[in-house]
Design brief:
Number of helices: 2
CATH class: Alpha Beta
CATH architecture: 3-Layer(aba) Sandwich
Shape: globular
Structural class: alpha+beta
Number of domains: 1
Order of helices and strands: HEEEEEEEHEEE
Length: about 170
């Protein structure tokens, strides 16, 4: 994955997060059945493991992004385009994953529903249209998925609820 694609991804992610804050009633969170309290065996808030498996992909004074050298792992049957592990102020806080295609989107949603709980598909309880938004909320973890229907582009945030606001603080 090219480094040039990440600025667009980050912009899209910020836009989606901003819209979700502005229209909280449009995106209903499902209570997470099985809060992982981290991602990939790494607990939220932990120091990111120094390992040959990861490479540093971005670095600023407060935020560092890492990628797996062998590429992103699948989510169930879904093959991901990219995955980035982010730390803020030295604490593991977020994973951002990107994928392409409607079939992959359906596989991602099926995986997340199996692992974290079914979505409420009652009309009016989930968003449809140009962008679909899905949200699972646990005691420590929040998962936000946005899928651009026209471009068939998906973005998933797995993040620590207690650390997510630190990305916005200077």
């Amino acid at each position: 994955m090219s480094t040039a694609a990440w600025p667009r991804t980050i912009f899209f992610a910020i836009l989606c997060c901003t819209l979700s804050l502005l229209w909280p009633c449009a995106i209903r969170a499902v209570q997470m059945v099985n809060d992982p309290q981290g991602f990939g065996g790494i607990a939220w808030g932990a120091a990111f493991p120094e390992s040959e498996a990861y490479r540093l992909a971005e670095s600023s004074s407060r935020i560092k992004g890492y990628e797996l050298k062998q590429g992103p792992p699948p989510l169930g049957e879904a093959r991901l385009e990219a995955m980035r592990f982010l730390t803020v102020n030295g604490k593991f806080a977020r994973v951002v994953a990107r994928y392409q295609g409607r079939q992959t989107h359906e596989q991602v949603v099926a995986y997340l529903e199996t692992k974290y709980g079914p979505l409420d598909r009652t009309p009016g309880q989930f968003s449809q249209g140009v962008a679909q938004h899905f949200n699972w909320r646990g005691t420590e973890t929040e998962i936000n998925l946005t899928f651009d229907v026209q471009r068939e582009h998906g973005l998933i945030f797995f993040e620590s609820q207690s650390l997510m606001l630190e990305f916005q603080n200077p």
